[in-house]
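User: Is it possible to get a 3D structure for a protein together with its bound compound? The compound here is iron/sulfur cluster. I've pasted both below.
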Amino acid sequence: MASRRDFFKRLATPVTNTIREENLKVRPPYAKSEDLFLKECISCESKDCATICYEKIIFIDEDGLPFLDFSKSGCTFCDDCAKACKREVLSLDIEKEQINAKFTISFESCMAHNSTICFSCKEPCIEDAILFNGLFNPVIDNVKCTGCGFCLSRCPTDAISYKPTVVGS
Ligand code: SF4
Ligand code: SF4
Ligand code: SF4
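Assistant: Yes, that's possible. Here is the predicted structure of the complex:
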């Protein structure tokens, strides 16, 4: 886990160097860029985004930056965090409702990839981004997937996982 000293070291380096895969975290939606989180959030005392999120999926890391945790719920794109952010790190100018996370289903762990019928992830996906081949073998369509995270906690075998991508990519 990165220390506060590592964080300041990152701040001192050019932005292009800070956006490395190992530094990425899943951020709240409506984010303009990763470097704005690094620049603004550390000195934001209110952390209004985390306070206002009624799904309680926004947490603050040890560097003072907000990140999302989908272990209990997901994002409804309610706009509240963007409206609450006074520093315009989150902004409703962003047109696409998209979270910087790429979701995948493990073929080894997923019951429907192992001859057992299960639609637990399909029902909460309002984007219809989980594609089944008949009754089996679901895969996530990453073009349709908004990264809302609601499927993750519904899977009885923890077969769904996600990795952060670059904000706005
Ligand atoms: S309210 Fe805005 S500036 Fe403050 S922590 Fe949240 S995103 Fe960052
Ligand atoms: S859009 Fe709403 S549900 Fe999603 S992270 Fe922001 S406040 Fe939470
Ligand atoms: S597949 Fe994507 S859009 Fe569908 S519930 Fe999961 S994270 Fe949300």
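The pocket of iron/sulfur cluster (ligand 2) is lined by residues 28-29, 52-53, 55, 57-58, 75-81 (CB under 6 Å). The longest strand covers residues 101-105.
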